[in-house]
User: Which sequence fits this backbone?
């Protein structure tokens, strides 16, 4: 008799859970903000000097928020410098996020590269609210190396 009551109670519990919709998935696309790994793709090979620490690199760039919804993972632009005076920084000097530094290292002047940066090599759990970058946000950069000093 106790077994029958247990089975009835279990059946009622299952029926009540399935009818309340507790297991329903949210509607709309699921947006993933964290790429799995650092990736780099040279889109144009340079022919000039090689960027290496502790040299000063001059770059043009466009920074995008990572989006898993887009084939190229380029979401909204959050920063860009594509003309005028280049952005200069010392490689290995800690002035930029680790993934950007890593992405420029090894490039040759005249080269262009796209890098996908996981949150661990970007702004991490704190994000960068002033730039509109949330916590654990992955990033994508298109980078052009214009000089090495």
Assistant:
């Amino acid at each position: 008799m106790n077994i029958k009551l247990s089975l009835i109670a279990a059946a009622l519990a299952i029926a009540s859970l399935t009818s309340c919709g507790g297991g329903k998935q949210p509607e709309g696309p699921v947006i993933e903000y964290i790429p799995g790994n650092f990736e780099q793709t040279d889109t144009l090979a340079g022919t000039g000097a090689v960027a290496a620490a502790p040299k000063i690199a001059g770059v043009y760039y466009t920074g995008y928020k990572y989006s898993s919804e887009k084939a190229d993972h380029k979401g909204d632009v959050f920063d860009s410098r594509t003309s005028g005076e280049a952005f200069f920084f010392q490689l290995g000097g800690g002035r930029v996020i680790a993934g950007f530094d890593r992405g420029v290292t090894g490039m040759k002047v005249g080269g262009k590269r796209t890098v996908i940066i996981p949150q661990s090599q970007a702004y991490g759990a704190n994000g960068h609210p002033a730039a509109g970058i949330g916590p654990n946000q992955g990033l994508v950069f298109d980078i052009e190396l214009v000089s090495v000093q």
